[in-house]
Design a protein that fits this description.
single chain, 395 residues, alpha/beta, Rossmann fold, GMP Synthetase, Chain A, domain 3, 3 domains, six-stranded mixed beta sheet, four-stranded mixed beta sheet, 13 strands, 19% strand, disordered C terminus
Length: 395
């Protein structure tokens, strides 16, 4: 079909980048012409190869698997994924043949920032990744749904290390009719969970859809820093001001108004470097820690400007606040009665944090907990995540 050439390029790219190859054959199907074609191709590869005869469910089939020795490449291991057979032997063989990881000049490599590239079908995610890495590592086609699995692509830019996770394009839940669509959805969600920053793609020539909202909601649920990426901007440049799309996004995603917005052209690379720079800024914001005195001073001023309303004829009080975690920044507020703070005041405190603390463009967790008896505050902080505290506000 019209994707055969692209698939061949992906196979060759995978072979070129790999340190070790696993050549998988089917014992029950026996040696096939396709196996021999692959074997012939791998004879030219000067890399370690392990030949895995899958579906060798028991030792009685080991002799049958021996026919694959005719392929002439790799150490043959009869395995069964279904029966979990010879798993330890396989892992031992992999570790034995993998090259030792070289040391970095400074003794420690900079950790790679993981970017989840998410969006509905055909919004230009794979084109973006290919332009980004200057190599065709993702199959690009006008046929929606060409990318069926998440693809990790490693690249460096200006001395910084990245992993771009190209995810399958998603369709509405009621349109998920095949196993491929179902697993594509879960792999995309897993990619979001793995990521440090999510890039949510929109096609500027299309209206915002239910799929876009579902993706945004999932990213928000996972507390992942996010950039709204408006792609294919070259198609409307000069016809539509960016402010119009900014308002459009803010109207549809009011609870994610903190997310920055980037306008790019993935095919040409326009504005892509500034997008990556902004993603790096979000990554750093999510890892920022603020001293407790700074937070307490901020909350004191906030309460002076606007006190919480009375609750059962009593005034809710904030005793102190402290940041207890990063990624996402998480702040605990010790108070006299958590239930006394209405949602409007919770949003007020969150906005105070966004406007004054150095992580205003990433998700923030604020928790409210009733102050324990004197001397137990520190223990309460440590026990926060395992306690039954009431959440003040997430955003």
């Amino acid at each position: 079909d019209n994707l055969t050439k692209d698939v061949e390029q992906q196979i060759q790219a995978g072979i070129d980048e790999a340190d070790l190859l696993l050549f998988v054959v089917d014992t029950k199907a026996g040696l096939t012409a396709l196996d021999e074609m692959v074997g012939e191709r791998l004879r030219k590869v000067e890399k370690p190869i392990i030949l895995l005869a899958n579906k060798t469910d028991h030792s009685g089939l080991d002799n049958t698997a021996l026919e694959f020795h005719r392929l002439g490449r790799g150490w043959l291991i009869p395995i069964s994924v279904h029966q979990n057979r010879n798993r330890r032997e396989l892992f031992d063989a992999i570790f034995e043949r993998l090259p030792e990881e070289g040391e970095q000049p400074d003794g420690q490599a900079e950790p790679r920032m993981k970017l989840a590239i998410v969006g509905r079908r055909n919004v230009g995610k794979s084109t973006f990744v290919n332009t980004l890495t200057k190599a065709k590592r993702c199959i690009v086609s006008e046929v929606p749904g060409t990318t069926r699995d998440s693809v990790d692509v490693h690249f460096d830019l200006d001395g910084h290390r990245f992993i771009a996770i190209d995810t399958p394009g998603l369709r509405r839940n009621k349109s998920i009719r095949t196993d491929i669509d179902f697993y594509g959805l879960h792999r995309a969600q897993r990619s979001v969970r793995r990521s440090d920053v999510s890039l949510l793609f929109f096609d500027c020539t299309q209206q915002i859809s239910k799929v876009d909202k579902q993706l945004a909601h999932y990213i928000e649920q996972q507390y992942k820093p996010c950039v709204f990426v408006v792609n294919k901007w070259d198609q409307v440049a000069g016809q539509m001001p960016t402010e119009r799309w900014v308002r459009y996004l803010r109207e549809h995603f009011p609870t994610m108004s903190y997310c920055p917005i980037a306008f790019i052209t993935g095919q040409t690379g326009k504005n892509m470097k500034s997008l990556l720079n902004h993603a790096q800024m979000l990554f750093k914001q999510s890892q920022t820690r603020v001293p407790t005195p700074t937070i307490n001073k901020l909350f004191h001023a906030a309460v002076q400007r606007q006190q919480p309303p009375l609750y059962l004829n009593r005034r809710p009080k904030i005793y102190f606040g402290s940041q207890i975690a990063t990624t996402p920044p998480t702040i605990i507020i010790m108070c006299n009665m958590p239930q006394g703070f209405p949602p409007s005041y919770r949003r007020y405190l969150l906005n105070v944090c966004r406007d004054n603390l150095p992580f205003g463009e990433v998700p923030i967790k604020l928790y409210m907990q009733k102050r324990e008896s004197q001397g137990k505050e520190q223990r309460a902080k440590k026990d926060l995540e395992n306690s039954g505290e009431e959440e003040l506000y997430d955003g």
